[in-house]
Design goal:
GO molecular function: hydrolase activity
Strand content: 15-25%
Structural class: alpha/beta
Protein name: Dienelactone hydrolase
InterPro entries: AB_hydrolase_fold (IPR029058), Dienelactn_hydro (IPR002925), FrsA_esterase (IPR050261)
Radius of gyration: 17 Å
CATH architecture: 3-Layer(aba) Sandwich
CATH class: Alpha Beta
Number of helices: 8
Order of helices and strands: HEEEEHEHHEHEEHEHH
Helix content: 25-40%
CATH superfamily: Alpha/Beta hydrolase fold, catalytic domain
Shape: globular
Largest sheet: 9 strands, mixed
Distance between the termini: 44 Å
Organism: Psychroflexus gondwanensis ACAM 44
Oligomer: single chain
Keywords: Hydrolase
Strand order of the largest sheet: 1-2-3-5-4-6-7-8-9
């Protein structure tokens, strides 16, 4: 049975808690990162700045694979509640290895990052409470990705982890023109719940023991998807807790007294599930 003390504490911020990774330093003066693969292909990552209508500078990271030619699908990566960080960039690089162009976005602006759960909660809550601004920032990232010369602007999807999952699902529910959305340990009490504006195919992968999600939230979320005949798959991994994809989850849980736990097996299984999801979505 889930511990409802934790649920009540975190539903104030749309039942979203996320994971943290260390900050990443630039590897060159031009803010270009090159990841050399064993097969001699190169993953090229570039820092990129863009703006939404609120004029705040948004600092992202775009990654592509030089071994893949021609225009290809673009995938937006939405960071955890700590802000745009190394974890999001790593996921962008992994998507690039698969042949996509991936943009790790900045939902807070100016590359802002939190150092403590209270600060992260304030940042993430502010985004969700000001959804119009959040959507403008997300759409600015989408237009930036579409404008990349390597991207097929007609093929755009998104992934998100924890807070980022909640953002990605909310954007899809609000009618954003996304082909697919795949999320990991995402909150389900969203500022925009499933409705007829939803166009994207969804893959939601959560832990069955995630203390940040109530049984009622899960039931309501699924029922609303069913009511509109949404194309979705919801997976709840038995015995798995919140933040299962983050290698630092155990230490962070101990440090901040939070119900988090990394699960290597489910991390790999859920990523493979996402891989097949996009492969099916964009198969020729």
């Amino acid at each position: 049975m889930k511990n409802y003390h934790w649920i009540l504490l975190f539903t104030l911020t749309v039942s979203v808690l996320a994971c943290k990774a260390d900050k990443k330093e630039n590897t060159s003066e031009e803010n270009v990162e090159v990841v050399q693969e064993e097969n001699s292909t190169e993953i090229i990552g570039n820092e990129i700045s863009y703006q939404a209508s609120d004029s705040i500078m948004l600092n992202g990271y775009i990654s592509r694979n030089t071994a893949t030619s021609g225009k290809r699908p673009g995938i937006i990566v939405v960071h955890e509640w700590w802000g745009h960080d190394e974890f999001a960039r790593q996921k962008a690089d992994e998507l690039a290895e698969m042949g996509y162009v991936a943009l790790a976005v900045d939902m807070y602006g100016n590359g802002k990052q939190a150092e403590h759960p209270e600060e992260a909660m304030a940042f993430s809550s502010n985004v969700m409470k000001n959804f119009d601004t959040a959507k403008k920032r997300f759409m600015a990232a989408m237009e930036t990705l579409k404008a990349d010369e390597n991207v097929d602007a007609e093929k755009i999807s998104a992934i998100g982890f924890c807070f980022g999952g909640s953002v990605a699902l909310s954007m899809a529910n609000s009618g954003a023109d996304l082909d697919g959305v795949a999320v990991f340990h995402s909150g389900l009490g969203l500022p925009v719940m499933p409705n007829e504006d939803l166009k994207a195919k969804l893959l939601i992968q959560n832990g069955a023991e995630d203390m940040m999600i109530t049984d009622e939230q899960e039931k309501t979320f699924k029922s609303q998807l069913d009511a509109i005949n949404a194309d979705y798959e919801y997976i709840a991994y038995e015995g798995v807790m919140h933040s299962f994809t983050n290698k630092d989850a155990d230490s962070l849980g101990e440090k901040f007294d939070l119900p988090l736990a990394y699960d290597k097996e489910i991390t790999e299984k859920s990523w493979e599930k996402m891989t097949l999801f996009f492969k099916d979505l964009y198969s020729e």
